[in-house]
Design a protein that fits this description.
single chain; about 280 residues; alpha/beta; 7-stranded parallel beta sheet; two-stranded parallel ribbon; about 30% helix; about 15% strand
Length: about 280
């Protein structure tokens, strides 16, 4: 049975990009409770539209399609684009060109609030022995993280010049439960993901703010103190899963870069050449 919505505020039309992806499918099931129309977009199949849904497939690098996508929208939850470490060209088109197209379309359509799905991989080369805050400069762990750092800069530019408010949500590891010991720090429950998105959409004054997409985990690499004005209060924790995770992974190689750095496997994953 569905929980009660986490806010009484209701929107006319919300846009969810990347709606066919892992987290897109999670939010597709949940966001309809908060709006009259949920517009869904992706380049992957979206299936049949449910009641209150509006399907608008679009490639983010197609500026005309993205402009049409933003028309008549109250706010955007932007999960679209490449979400893993890949070669440069697909990242360039979807995450670099695509993010610019989305913000320019938001400007033209008069859309004033965006939930931008950034990533913890923007800061993947900070060490797991460090706690970083919302004002910590990026240290990307690959081309994917680099593209998300670019997206954060685009969002800041469009706030400073045009007043489009954005939450730069550096999403951790959002799965039904943590898969390894790294995720004891980076885990974000699906319920907390919903709480975070709705806090961003309903806070009176958002600005252009970094916030880490994590639950209330005991192991902490991220400090959301600088984003307290958003009103996000996670209610879940990775701690109930700790014993099972540690039983599956009792030992860590403390000399392994994937153990040293917050980005985990991303610090050494993915091709940087075009051959």
């Amino acid at each position: 049975m569905l929980r009660e919505p986490v806010t009484s505020i209701r929107f006319g039309r919300l846009l969810l990009t990347g709606a066919a992806g892992g987290l897109g499918r999670v939010l597709r099931e949940r966001l309809a409770r908060y709006c009259d129309v949920l517009r869904l977009s992706d380049v992957a199949p979206l299936g049949e539209a449910a009641a209150g849904e509006e399907l608008m497939p679009a490639a983010l690098q197609d500026s005309a399609a993205v402009r049409a996508l933003l028309e008549g929208v109250d706010a955007v939850i932007h999960l679209g684009g490449v979400s893993t470490e890949q070669r440069w060209e697909p990242i360039l088109q979807a995450n670099i060109v695509g993010t610019y197209n989305l913000y320019e379309a938001a400007r033209l359509a008069g859309v004033k609030r965006v939930v931008f799905a950034s990533s913890n991989h923007v800061c993947g080369f900070y060490k797991q022995s460090e706690v970083i805050g919302t004002d910590t400069p990026p240290r990307p762990d690959g081309l994917y993280g680099l593209s998300k750092a670019f997206g954060e800069d685009v969002a800041q530019l469009y706030f400073d010049r045009y007043g489009i408010e954005s939450a730069l949500v550096r999403i951790g590891s959002s799965f039904p439960e943590p898969r390894d010991r790294r995720m004891l720090a980076s885990w974000l429950s699906y319920d907390d993901l919903e709480r975070l998105v709705m806090a961003v959409l309903t806070t009176p004054a958002l600005g252009c703010s970094v916030i880490y997409g994590i639950s209330d985990n005991k192991t902490r690499w991220y400090d959301n103190g600088g984003a307290a004005h958003i009103g996000y209060r996670p209610q879940d924790s990775s701690e109930p899963f700790r014993a099972a995770v540690e039983a599956r992974q009792p030992r860590l190689d403390l000399g392994d870069p994937t153990t040293i750095y917050q980005g985990g496997a991303f610090v050494r994953t993915g091709p940087f050449t075009q051959d």
